[in-house]
Design goal:
Elements: H1 3-10, H2 16-25, E1 29-32, H3 39-54, E2 59-62, E3 92-98, E4 116-123, E5 134-137, H4 144-155, H5 161-174, H6 185-193, H7 199-207, H8 214-223, E6 226-228, H9 231-234, E7 237-242, H10 244-247, H11 252-256, H12 258-262, E8 270-278, E9 281-288, H13 294-300, E10 304-305, E11 309-315, H14 318-329
Parallel strand pairs: 1-2, 1-3, 3-4, 4-5, 7-8
Antiparallel strand pairs: 6-7, 8-9, 9-11, 10-11
Helix pairs in contact: 2-4, 3-4, 3-5, 4-5, 5-6, 5-7
This protein binds manganese (II) ion (MN).
Manganese (II) ion is lined by residues 40, 99, 124, 143-144, 174.
Length: 330
C-alpha cells in the first residue's frame, strides 16, 4: 500500500469539489436535518433537496422529531420533499447530514447511517465529531447554509429564489439577524436578496412571530432567572428554568427564544436556559460573550456546539443540574 492510499483511507475530510463529486454522482440521496430542526438545518436540507431534485436525483429530506415541520418554517420552499421519519428509506446510495455536530443529533434516524453506501456530513459546528464516511466541516462558516452556497457554486447549481429563500432562512437565524457576522456574510445575503426574495418577511416569520401565550410564558420563566456572580471564575452565570408547566401548548421555537433574552444580562459572561423535557431530564442551551468557550463546557457535559453557543442534555433536579453546570464552568 502506498503512502497516498494510507492517507486517503484515514482522512475522511472532503473539500468542496469532493462533496460535489459525491452529490453529483449519487443515484439516491437522503438528506437528514437535526432533531427539533431550526431554520439553518432545515433551510440547508431543503436547499440541497431542491438542487438534487432539479438534477433528477431521487431525494428525501427528513428529521427524526417532531412529526411535522415547525410552524414558522412551513413557508420554506421544498417542504414537499420532507418525508416522515418512519418512511425514510433504509438503504440509500448517499446520506447527507446537514448542521449536525454528532450522529446523536439525528435522533432515531441515526440508524440510517448504517444503510448508506456513503455518508457526507456538511456542517459548521466546531465540535463536529466527523461521523460521516466523508466530512465537509467549515467551522468558520456563519451557518451551514453558507457552506451550501459554496457547494452550489462549486457544483454549478443556480441559486434561484427558492434556493435563496432556504439559504437566507439559515443565514439570518444563525447570525442572529446579521448581528454575528464576518466579512462576506452580507455579500452572501445581498446575493440571496437580489433573487427577489422578501427578506423582511422571512426574518419576521422565523424570528419575530409568536403566539400570545409566549408572553405569559416569558413572564413566568424570566421571574425564575438567577444570577450567580461567582460562577465561571467570577465572570458570572445567569440562568432560567423553563418547566413543562410554563411551556405547555407552546412550540419549541417559543422556548428556544428565551435564551436570547437571558443572555443579554451584562453581569454574566455565560447564560444558560434549562428546558424540562421529561421527569428529571432537561435540554440546556448555553451562550457566552467573549471569554468562555461554551462548546468545551457542553462537550464536557455530553453535548457540543460552537464557541459562543452550545447545548447538552442534563439529568437530575434543578439544583443538581445547576450545580453540575457551575462545576463544569469552574
Ligand atoms: Mn447552524
Amino acid at each position: 500500500m502506498s503512502d497516498y492510499e494510507v492517507s486517503t483511507v484515514h482522512d475522511s475530510a472532503v473539500d468542496l469539489d469532493g462533496a460535489v463529486a459525491l452529490l453529483s454522482t449519487a443515484q439516491t440521496v437522503t438528506v437528514l436535518c437535526h432533531v427539533q430542526p431550526d431554520a439553518d438545518t432545515l433551510g440547508s436540507g431543503l436547499a440541497l433537496g431542491l438542487a438534487l431534485e432539479r438534477r433528477g436525483i431521487p431525494v428525501q429530506v427528513a428529521f427524526a422529531a417532531p412529526d411535522e415541520v415547525p410552524l414558522s418554517m412551513r413557508g420554506l420552499p421544498g417542504t414537499h420533499l420532507v418525508t416522515a421519519a418512519d418512511a425514510v428509506r433504509d438503504e440509500v446510495d448517499l446520506l447527507v447530514a446537514v448542521d449536525c455536530g454528532t450522529a446523536g443529533r439525528l435522533g432515531e434516524l441515526r440508524t440510517r447511517l448504517g444503510g448508506a453506501r456513503t455518508s457526507l456530513v456538511i456542517d459548521h459546528h466546531r465540535s463536529n465529531t466527523r461521523f460521516g464516511t466523508h466530512n465537509l466541516i467549515d467551522a468558520d462558516a456563519e451557518a451551514t447554509a453558507a457552506v451550501l452556497a459554496d457547494i452550489f457554486d462549486a457544483w454549478g447549481v443556480e441559486i434561484d429564489a427558492d434556493i435563496a429563500h432556504c439559504l437566507f432562512a439559515g443565514l439570518a437565524t444563525d447570525t442572529g439577524s446579521f448581528r454575528w457576522v464576518r466579512a462576506g456574510t452580507h455579500t452572501l445575503a445581498e446575493r440571496l436578496l437580489a433573487t427577489g426574495i422578501d427578506g423582511a418577511n422571512i426574518t419576521r416569520t422565523l424570528l419575530d412571530t409568536h403566539p400570545f401565550g409566549w408572553l405569559p410564558m416569558l413572564s413566568s420563566v424570566l421571574a425564575s432567572a438567577t444570577l450567580v456572580p461567582e460562577a465561571a471564575s467570577n465572570s458570572g452565570l445567569v440562568y432560567a428554568l423553563v418547566r413543562r408547566t410554563d411551556s405547555a401548548h407552546l412550540g419549541a421555537e417559543e422556548i428556544e427564544s428565551v435564551i436570547d433574552i437571558v443572555r443579554t444580562t451584562v453581569e454574566a459572561e455565560v447564560a444558560a436556559v434549562f428546558k424540562e423535557v421529561g421527569p428529571q431530564e432537561w435540554t440546556v442551551s448555553l451562550r457566552s460573550k467573549r471569554d468562555v468557550d461554551v462548546s468545551l463546557v457542553a462537550t464536557t457535559l455530553g453535548g457540543g456546539g460552537h464557541r459562543f453557543a452550545s447545548g447538552y442534555t442534563a439529568h437530575g433536579d434543578s439544583e443538581e443540574i445547576v450545580a453540575a453546570l457551575c462545576a463544569a464552568l469552574g
